[in-house]
Batch of 4 targets.
Target 1
Amino acid sequence: MFGIGGGAVIVPVLFELFRMYQVPDAVRMQLCVGTSLAIIVPTAWRSYRAHYARGLVIPEVLRLWTVPVILGVAAGSLLAAVAPAGLFKLAFAGIVGIIAGKLLFGAENWVIGSELPGGAAMRAYGFVMGLASSLMGISGGSLVTIFLTLYRKTIHEAVATASGIGVPITTAGTLGYMLAGLPHQSEMPPLSIGFVSILGVLLIAPISSYVAPLGARLAHRLPRRSLEIAFGSFLVLVSARFMLSLLYPGT
């Protein structure tokens, strides 16, 4: 419904569950991120197909961003192998907080330009989207949606295109986090491959994939401002939760 693959929901939920199962704090956030990306793969694909059928996906954005976002995801996966958990908590809390502020308080005149930038700048933006998404465990939908609306694309076009960008981000991110977590395999819960919990994927992915087209259809029926307020309010709560964890490790 919001043009996200569900990572903004899945990561906080997994964070609480893995804490209950006493996954070490040093690797818990990375496990949440990797598992979230894996769960979102089928959801992103089904959501993209549903939006594409309505003709609102911007093909030029997909063409320019596919390779750069994959490179950005690869960079994020490398960081997952060596960076402290605090980096991922800070990235999650900080970025979603900024996005929430734009959605809740941004005005119509908050724009960067009337047209999307040229090829080189777009590819650079794509790399940043992939890197940030990989650090947060999301499909990039929230970031892409904000970016496109700043260039005067409608919220419905932005949501539809964001769902398409989520496909390469989540696919590359899943493989990257599997490989990045292999040196930490002894710290992972049972039925995990690197920083991906196979059990978590099997329990969540089928249901989230099934209901994704329902959200896509609902998004096209709701007013733009209603989508922005609902999404922004949710992200405020998510950001606050991870800032608390960052200030008080282990919580």
Target 2
Amino acid sequence: MVRVAPKSPLASAGSKPTEAPEYSGPLVTPIDLRKLPLEGDLKALVFEEIIKKIFLLIDHYQIDTAIPAEQIFLNLACRLASDHVPGFRIFNSRKRGAKPKWTLDECRALVDIVNANKTRKGLKAAITAAMKQPAWRWNRKVPSIEARYREAVHTIQRFEFLSNCSREQAFAALKTWYGPVGKASTRKRTTETPR
């Protein structure tokens, strides 16, 4: 049986709702009454097939079977609902502005691979050497990667600073980085077009 990696109900947070997951093997094969034995109670035989498929679903969603049965079936119900009922999906999309393109993990991965290739020749040489590595996954040109590298270093530094300081220190730092809260831009807006 080919297994498709299950999605967590929270894995779709921040992304658009997707279609139902792909099932495989017995989970896509309907219960065929013609293949059931002729003797015995038909309802009981169908119920046995349904129970087998429920256990396959539990296995498909990788639900821990060591937890109490009520929790197993509650987890299964939640996973099925989030995959098949639109009202259970989590959708948190930003309405305006550019989407953030680099997560902290992406920033760290880029900085790590470039730093591993650093020599005394400079950042451009390190990026060029890093681009030749098999772990390289950013398809951009050197000047673009250089800008992303500098942004990534700043993002990591800010994250580490904010995670290691008090709320007051963090708020003061954010104020210096981004300006006071609720303060309008001091840039003069005009309707004139530049000549």
Target 3
Amino acid sequence: MIALKPEERSSFGAIDVTSYPVVHGESGGPHLAYRIEAQGRVIAYSADTEWTEALVPLARDADLFIAEAYTYDKPVKNHLSLAALEARLADIRPKRLILTIWGMTCWDG
């Protein structure tokens, strides 16, 4: 096992991974999201988290951003709403966005 330090890039052969801290309660952790760079492409992945400013550098200009959207606009502790994400999409600017909801996946086409 390799421990990744938040906001520090680690290389695994031709793949670079940077982890970012996210917010998902007090139990367990650390809770991390990942920015994966390989062959000139970027995938950003964040599972359960409340809105946190770390999502901006995590997914900025990513080719693909995979994020949870637990509700449309109702705040739920430890989870992201689509409305909170939409409010910051202009700062994040992912080329594609896939939303995961309760184990289901939706995509923008």
Target 4
Amino acid sequence: MITQSANWVNQSGNGYAINTGFNDESLMRIELLQLEIKNKFPALIWPTPSDALHISLMDMVSPFIDYERDKNEIFLELFRRHDNILQGIFRYEKRFYIKASEIEVTPAAIIIVWEDDGHFNKLRGKFLENTAPFPGTKQPPDITFTTIARYRKDGADLAELEKFLAGKNIDVIEKVNTFRLVREKVVPMIRYEIIKIYKLS
């Protein structure tokens, strides 16, 4: 397995998404893992900044897709219907816990995969029962994960990194109390504004 560089990081973007962040203790534990990896592979790794760490529920308008219309106009068209659907879903969804399950190395990134007892996919499924993503927008992911690092260069062999992270655990249990609708301005989630918070019951 070899790397695919993230040459698009820290660039201006425009997108709208539903995601959730982390509490301070969880962030600290993730940051310590990032630092450990960065110290071992300083020329290879670009760690996700602390404020940008999140778990995505779904995109509403993707920052990486060139739509035929203005993205802000698309969002305004979608917002009322999508907001009503999301309010209806979250109003009856109880708060739940997720636990870090494994650290996975992929060609594009290093991710933490979370055990969530199917909560994220259940929420995605309820949303898709009521509406479809705007044409051209990718379908919601089918796993619950956080991208903690990307790569600075193409074509690097990941065997040593895989060996380094094999069997490594991260002790994080996070309580999901809220989701947020965000507008992403600098990717990936380096600069964004929170438009609305949705509280779970």
